[in-house]
Amino acid sequence: MTPEASEDTGVIVPNNGQRKIGVSGAQEPSAPPPARLPSPAAGLGYKAGPAGVRTQCQGPKTGVGMKSVLLARVLVLLWVSKAWTEVLVQPDFDAKKFSGLWFVVSMVSDCKVFLDKKDHLLMSTTVVTAAAEGNLSVHMAFPRADGCNQVDAEYMRVGSQGHFRVPALGYLDVRIVHTDYSSFAVVYIYKELQGALSTMVQLYSRTQEASPQALKAFQDFYPTVGLPDDMMVMLPKSDACSSGDKEAP
Predict the structure, then answer these.
(1) Please, is 91 exposed, middle or buried when counting C-beta atoms within 10 Å of its C-beta (0-12, 13-18, 19+)?
(2) pLDDT digits (tens, 9 = 90+) for 202-245
(3) Global pTM value
(4) What's the chain's Rg over C-alpha atoms?
(5) What GO molecular-function term can you cite, just one (predicted)?
């Protein structure tokens, strides 16, 4: 059976299997978010930063030496770290209130893999459980033509509540930007997939129908990190993972 790269998770997932993701306890340095950062917006908990380097999620070109690729990535990260003003997280983020079942109803990303597949993606589910030290235990289920792929991952807290990294998924920087806990959340992800960096924003909803308030918060935020409307997709409903849906304990 040949595994495939999943844009949904940033990991290699078997075509019709389930993969358990483990995270080592070793402390790793937090990587910076993307260089184009948001302008002020009332009530959403983020602030402006300088313009900078944009990268798309596509692997290195054929014929480029590995040393050159690695050097280029290091230089980009060093440059971005100097120009970085962070995307702020939800004030007073409460992991227990955030726990439970969420539907990923919409996504936007500058990743080429995502853009090639976005018209064929379906609505996925995420079940969040508050863990020790501000971490989150997350169960994700992704419907596909061949069934339901499922992944478990530990979202490791970085500094403030609501700010995470997920090394096993290639998520360098995850932030809960805005949530009312009861109906929606806007989630920002800076990730590495297939050797390239990209930005993604997801809209979580407690139901399969996002509220007007949720859509407005999502649509107000993602342009501020340089993502245009034509990179966004509203995800169709699917029953492929209905048996795997579960409420938080």
Answers:
(1) exposed
(2) 999 999 999 999 999 999 999 999 999 999 999 999 888 875 44
(3) 0.70
(4) 17
(5) small molecule binding
